[in-house]
Amino acid sequence: MTVSLSCMEYGTQGVITEIKKYSRELNALGIRVGKIVKMVTKQPIKGPVVVMTGEVVVAIGIEMASCIQVNTDIDPAYIRDK
Amino acid sequence: MKDERSMILLIGNPNVGKSVLFNRLTGGDAVVSNYPGTTVDYTKGTVLLDKKSYTVIDVPGAYSLEARDKAEEVCVKMLEANKNAIAVIVLDATRIERGLYIALETIERGLSAVVALNMIDSARDREISVDSSKLQKILGIPVVETSAVSGEGLKQLGDMIRKARPSNIKEIKERSEGKEIQPETGSKCPGCCGGCGGV
């Protein structure tokens, strides 16, 4: 299932499949297509989402996060290999 | 005339230890804290390496060279104003991947560079192993493991600053894809993997 990053549930993981906008800014923070992200927390009232990618925790504004598509049906072997 | 070759720029992501490294190299007192964005203006100092005096500049941390805030603007301006300076690219050994973005951007601009793989002690504690010689081979510039807090690797960094060299981004791409490119010069230093140019 593909959802936008801003809609991911707490604790779930997924692989980034598409970054529709702000890709340059996000790439510099280590958010790229093919990377595994884990939802850490979402701040209320349209606040930022905090995700973990590798060893890095990144806070992303809700608007930016909504431009990132994530596939949550990932093979556990893919995560292990990464 | 100002000799830009005697200028050293410390470049890297926020909170990777550039200011600690700066203080270690120059004996300065740049403000250090454990959160990102402490340095928003640059700090200048001097270091003596092999009887030659270098001006060291502690550049504010940036994630990329396409400036998005004041601190990154300062970083880009410093790079543009000192095109012949030596760039010491400081990477956090526990989060190398994120730092490689600005590292490659710096190399792409044609600056002579050397990589300081900082916080290597912290990486060891967290059981993160880094193949620095492979990184050196791929990037084609010297890579030194350092821990600015403990002082580990600073002597080697001082030696390698003098061996800083520019690299070619296309060749880096080919090497990272596994294509072998022989170093241009013959190796004169023991255990050389091409990163220092064999000098």
Give a summary of the structure in a few sentences.
The complex is a heterodimer of chains A (82) and B (199). Chain A is an alpha+beta fold and 82 residues long.
List keywords for this structure.
heterodimer, A: 82 residues, alpha+beta, SH3 type barrels, six-stranded antiparallel β-sheet, 38% strand, B: 199 residues, alpha/beta, Rossmann fold, six-stranded mixed β-sheet, 7 helices, 32% helix, 19% strand
Order of helices and strands of chain A: EEHEEEHEH
The N- to C-terminal Cα distance of chain A equals 20 Å
Class of secondary structure makeup of chain B: alpha/beta
CATH superfamily of chain B: P-loop containing nucleotide triphosphate hydrolases
Strand order of the largest sheet of chain B: 2-3-1-4-5-6
Q: How much is the radius of gyration of chain B in Å?
A: 16 Å
Gap between N and C termini of chain B, in Å? 28 Å
Strands side by side in the biggest sheet of chain A: 1-6-2-3-4-5
The third-level CATH topology of chain B is: Rossmann fold
Q: What's the CATH topology name of chain A?
A: SH3 type barrels
Largest interface: A-B, 9 and 11 residues
> What would CATH call the class of chain A?
Mainly Beta
> How many alpha or pi helices of chain A?
3
The count of strands of chain A amounts to 6
Describe the structure.
- The complex is a heterodimer of chains A (82) and B (199).
- Chain A has one domain (2-81): SH3 type barrels.
- Helices cover 21% and strands 38% of the residues of chain A.
- Chain A is built from three helices and six strands.
- Chain A has helices spanning 23-28, 62-66, 76-81, and strands spanning 2-4, 13-19, 36-42, 49-53, 56-60, 68-71.
- In chain A, a hairpin with a 6-residue loop joins strand 3 (36-42) and strand 4.
- Chain A is globular.
- The mean pLDDT of chain A is 87.
- Chain B is α/β, with parallel strands linked by helices and 199 residues long.
- Helix content of chain B is 32%, strand content 19%.
- In chain B, strands 2-3-1-4-5-6 form a six-stranded mixed beta sheet, sandwiched between helices.
- Chain B starts with 6 loop residues before the first strand and ends in a 23-residue tail after the last helix.
